[in-house]
């Protein structure tokens, strides 16, 4: 029985079949997963169990690819963008990171035959721009981790969201003054309120005037209120997310 992890695993080796009326992307890692059939007429996609036999006299072209970027739809036709060459450039939390060094844009433009001449001309101009995109480098991806998500979302452990920056920080730097430095504005407000409360209490102790006692209680209440607000909404004041447990 396959686990959810194996079902969601990306295929690192793929085989691309170019038929006259379709593209077929077949996993080449021996997993036995279904193939992706893409129509060259309307760019519709479906899963098939295996590559069908070619009914045409033309022998299909076969390419080895490293991944599929997606479908790009222009005015009249759609284009399949695949990764043809990659280079491993590093790792993130033990997961290998690859750089895309070459792309290939495959047209699904059979529908252009019935398009107006002006639209065909514009589509040709866009196709020339896509040929430049094939040589574009600087895109990175990983087969094991989603690089488009933040570290916080990637490390959603059960019902808790833990700040990655705090988890990866050295032990001596956790807590203490580090926690104080996370909300300097809120800390300044609390300290000023505490100072006013202390001064008001001193003056109230000497002459017992009601107005000084009132101000001491007022500043003490502001101090406690700001502290409670920071505790309940730490993500507004802090530059690091707090440990959060969603409801339900």
From TrEMBL:
Keywords assigned by UniProt, alphabetized: Membrane, Transmembrane, Transmembrane helix
Single Gene Ontology MF annotation: phosphatase activity
Transmembrane region(s): 180-201, 213-232
Origin species: Brassica campestris (Field mustard)
UniProt-recorded name of the protein: SAC domain-containing protein
SAC domain ranges (all copies): 67-156
Record-linked InterPro entries: SAC_dom (IPR002013)
